[in-house]
């Protein structure tokens, strides 16, 4: 326990812990698992701060559905994990709890005491969840992924991170950032752990209005079935000859660090030696994804975060002397200026602007059009049709999965340029397209970059083919 405390102190991964561990179901199927939960997912036994001063005193009166399911199956929740404020960020540096430090030990640094090693970002926004798993503080962790917040930290910390298809895991009890993009995701050191947790929490929940219905789930499962049954990744010698892997050319932009390409190439060579067919594909709308994402995510955030008024929700900030208390606007403005960090305020302003009558067409609607194109790009790339469409048509020349680097680089140092300015926004360039299209994507470790730090590759599939995506990920890890 002392060792764990020290580890947590050096990584800053977990921000609250239960005083006693009461497991209501010690013989449940997950009773062997310890799980950390991102601090924007509601728990009754621990605070849910969203790393925001606004919620620093908040404890939820109910558990999120995902947490309730884990507890009911016997998992032990060991603590709440640090994150970027309301999930806004890529490096877990926007947090009232302070930044998360990546626990990875590069081979050349093993002999240096931990406190003297270079401090790198664990990625974000679910950096605490990823760091807790990577440091061995727990077996698995829940995060949320709106534009890459599970896949990016998984890649930077050298572990596996799944963003499931949108709508498969209930968002009930998950503090909303951008509802049309938010997904609960899972971290683990192995795909088996990730899959066990995913299978336990992926079920229809009538409390989530955007949950995928049992009918759509069944339909997606039936569509993916034939391919899955021909792949058996559990064999020590998997045969991938029925698998068509698409390599999207737009995912090798000029910002991509060259040593990442080397690591990805090794993965491709291995998959090809197991029989997989590698097929170059084009997803032409990809270059517009990042701008569309930040318009849509900020617009939805500005609406969601309007509820923190210091009256019904959020910590009310005391008014400065001389300010007129009788004007409710003063309470509201002061509470929001004091309670939200700089990044959150930036998004609220940006999102509010995109939704004003003057800007709506040029920004919000335009971003929605880009989103439709991104979805259409993916639908024309995949062999299996999208089960969410009313009359899906199959595409015999399509691919089964797409494979690309998870990030443009390895984890940046916490004191580097990548942490300020536009740096953090660029980190998501590979991950936002799958978010806009609601597709399943998993980042798995794929060796290291020239600096010795972990590199992740992402496998992306058609909506609902989460099992296939995990199956291919397992072959790679
Ligand atoms: N980095 C992205 C953002 O800041 C994604 C965050 C997320 O997925 N929660 O919005």
UniProtKB/TrEMBL annotation:
InterPro entries: Amidase, Amidase_CS, Amidase_dom, AS_sf, GatA
Pfam families cross-referenced by the UniProt entry: Amidase
Catalytic activity: L-glutamyl-tRNA(Gln) + L-glutamine + ATP + H2O = L-glutaminyl-tRNA(Gln) + L-glutamate + ADP + phosphate + H(+)
GO molecular function: ATP binding; glutaminyl-tRNA synthase (glutamine-hydrolyzing) activity
Domain Amidase: 23-469
Keywords: ATP-binding, Ligase, Mitochondrion, Nucleotide-binding, Protein biosynthesis
Basic and acidic residues bias spans: 107-120
Subcellular location: Mitochondrion
Any Gene Ontology biological process: mitochondrial translation
GO CC term (a single one): mitochondrion
Active site (catalytic residues): 38 (charge relay system), 125 (charge relay system), 149 (acyl-ester intermediate)
Spans annotated as Disordered: 103-127
EC number: 6.3.5.7
Major location category of this protein: mitochondrion
Keyword Cell cycle among record annotations: no
Summary of subunit composition and partner proteins: Subunit of the heterotrimeric GatCAB amidotransferase (AdT) complex, composed of A, B and C subunits.
Described purpose of this protein according to its UniProt entry: Allows the formation of correctly charged Gln-tRNA(Gln) through the transamidation of misacylated Glu-tRNA(Gln) in the mitochondria. The reaction takes place in the presence of glutamine and ATP through an activated gamma-phospho-Glu-tRNA(Gln).
Family: Belongs to the amidase family. GatA subfamily.
Protein name: Glutamyl-tRNA(Gln) amidotransferase subunit A, mitochondrial
